[in-house]
């Protein structure tokens, strides 16, 4: 009998990667929910276009599907410009409704996507045992969502996995995120506006992140886990690697962009817990993943 899994945010950057990998498993039946989708249902994937704020129709869809598990990736306001917006907490209300719908089904687990923003500011590799002290509404809402999922699953005696993602990248990422922005700029021979690039960040390739999410569905693990590469590279070195790969005619410059606040010097995940629990580790090295991403962007460019 096929395992039935609901995915929210199925048309998002990470959602599409999860759906692509998970749909290859023909022992799984998927209900893919997103606000807007033109995708047609496949052999084991049922696409539905519903706004998660439409509680009545979400409830009907989930109860009719009767899932074994939920992968909750949807979130409104992921961009930095929205991180201090009080509307972030609307996401918690949406999650509350999803969980209430699940309580009327045979669901056995929930895998939710959290964020490094739940921890707040640390300048050392972050462990799950570190105290959560979020500084933004985004981080506070994500933390509240994590507590909601963990408490709900404990009460219902089902498994909960909350994955705190650090930074991801890959094909089809939003054009304003750093790596996507730099690649797109160099491909049209424009110099991107960058900071000094001294800050170090933990970047995980989107398909490695998707694989960890999927493995969490089929593993007995539960609780909070960091999701990252476990290593941090300076923004300057990442940009230089992209520049060397694309070889644009424009110049490479740093320091043109000045931030309103001092950026953190280090954002890095300690991934010991997830590596041991899932027997998972990233399969793509940064250079390999950058090359793959660049080639995908090149292929999507209009032919001259």
Can you characterise this structure?
This protein has 304 residues and is an alpha/beta fold. It folds into two domains: 3-168 and 204-227, 3-Layer(aba) Sandwich (Rossmann fold), CATH 3.40.50; 170-201 and 231-267 and 283-300, UDP-galactose 4-epimerase, domain 1 (Alpha-Beta Complex), CATH 3.90.25. 37% of the residues lie in helices and 17% in strands. The strands form three sheets. The chain has a seven-stranded parallel sheet with strand order 3-2-1-4-5-6-10, with helices on both faces. A three-stranded mixed sheet has the order 11-8-12. α4 links the parallel β5 (109-115) and β6. The longest helix has 20 residues, at 137-156. The mean pLDDT is 95.
